[in-house]
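Bench notes, afternoon.
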Amino acid sequence: MSNPNLASLIASLVLVTASLVACGSSPPDDAPDAMMQPAPLDPTGTFAVRSTYSLVAPPAAAASMLAELAAATDGPDDPSRYLIDRLVARLPEGRIQLAVAAVAPYVAAYLQVRLDSFAPRLAAGTRALADGLNKIARHFGTTEQLTIGNDGRVRRLITGLRIDTASATGTGPVDIALAPLGLADIATAGNYALAADRLTIGDHSADLPYGALLRVGLDRAVVPRVVPGATSLDAALVSLVDCDRLGALVAEYLGIGTPALYGRACAVALTHLAAEIYERFDTASVRMTVAGSARVIDLDGDGPIEVIASGTWAGTVGNAPLALSVFEGAAP
């Protein structure tokens, strides 16, 4: 038995459809597709960003610091000659200091063949310290806030350093905030443009506390690996050399002065060497100039982006060009 109401409804739908076709209108089935189109990308916002920089070579600001450690092992009678020269400089001025200085090459040769008795790990340890410092000088990173404004400007606020410890300890990077180091956050800004999902950031510059980066990396990543338990360069050097034994050998060879005199001079010399290197760290700063490009992603299709992905930096740190250097970020 037919249902008159249902038949009437079907007839009405047929008439409506025919009317729409006659007027050139699209069927209403397309309306949901139009509603599914994503909103235009809106890049503005603040993002937590991590950058990793790789340098072709250490910048000139690091050269003297790296060279000082390398100098301990680059001569044919090093590290003994290096130690003796440092020891002589720390002896009290007078007859004994002059006498030791006059025969320093012979004392160094005497000690070099006896190195295993007072510093068996010194040569390898010093090379490892220099090598670790060199790696950190060429591979490091920053943590920052990146703010993309509606004025065509992108602002970076660098709030921390990233120490690349992977090659030294087998662990991932360590993030260290600038504030506990007594350093202010670093602000810089540049222009940006958005084409499709590609964000480009124009050239901008900032002064990096490069010496602080090297010092923290040396103390927290390199030194503990080379000398377990040590957390500073002076502690590492004193641990690598048995100054009491060295003092006894020098006194035995010269026949003047006491083992304690030479032992104290040895310890003071090593501590002073570390202090000299740290002093250079404290004053070293380099100018970083970079430009970047990244993909931006709107995860939910509502317009504002949530992710900055596959970012790359190009530019220089000091006088050193960047090799592959990357960044990524996300909205909080």
